[in-house]
């Protein structure tokens, strides 16, 4: 997808992402499209998250994509050196938000000294507890970015009254819905009813569903950082698979860790299934309570027993490349929205194991309502039955499964939305145009 260049004077916005891969990367993809449309973007990042911007900065010149690198203020409840949610568990979310809020004053000082200050803040919804008041103080607009589906957004806001008294969640929801505009990492046709419902909640039409977006990639810069295993080695392994749609890919994103019993059950299921597979194993972060050292540990001897048909990668993986490869047929994941969209674009059947937060809403939509994915189990501490999971692995590679057929229909809708004249294409173009009309 690309948008038309804006034939107006250069417009400047400030982008403030939430420090998690599933939030930063889609915001970068949106920023890339806005930059192609002639909008200048300054990203606020802490030093350890600057590498995410490397592909974007290698594509655009320094006058289009700029950075404001600020050290993350310390917080008594955050482990020292933690600047990304992959370093900690979800319980640390309010503390990360509180630490980030301390950037308010240096950003305000930077804004007041800038010769061409931003006309709006494009902020992750998780940051709106402090970025929305900041934008109000600067007398500019807030554009909240939600890396979720309209189904999740409308469902969460329908329960707003129940959570509005909670300090973090209540304030975040209130400030997000009060924002001048809302950008959803989704497309209207996925679930038209909830998209319309979300517009009713916001009480305006400045809601843009802009996905699917092509991931920003540049020669010499890997998306999300250097992969634990070189991409060409992963690609060579996949190329060696003789049968299309014969590989199961297993990954649970950057924030989920599995305990010893879960890892053993998963390893046992992969071993019993007889399928070819890639298993991406996250390295536990410093903020994870893991005194026994048994988080995300591959079972002893497992790799020797599956040698030749299985590939275990410890750390960051080139996930979009894997999911788009003709050899990959299904994907066991936590149903995080970013991973779900990558699976959709890759054309692989999803096997759902929702763990936390929006995962459960995504399961309700994709599994329960649309019948487009296979449920495996549910819950952060759940231990799957290895024998049943082995059967699911094997059965998931059948090309005639009704869930796969339904999923491919949804993929067609997504691709149509992204094409010129499609809903997401037009929404992205309108977003850029609306921003360009803002007066500082």
From TrEMBL:
Domain of life: Eukaryota
UniProtKB keywords: Glycosyltransferase, Transferase
GO BP annotation list: flavonol biosynthetic process
Keyword Flavoprotein attached: no
Taxonomic source organism: Dipteronia sinensis
PANTHER family: FLAVONOL 7-O-RHAMNOSYLTRANSFERASE (PTHR48047:SF5), GLYCOSYLTRANSFERASE (PTHR48047)
SUPFAM superfamilies: UDP-Glycosyltransferase/glycogen phosphorylase (SSF53756)
Name the UniProt record assigns to this protein: UDP-glycosyltransferase
Similarity section: Belongs to the UDP-glycosyltransferase family.
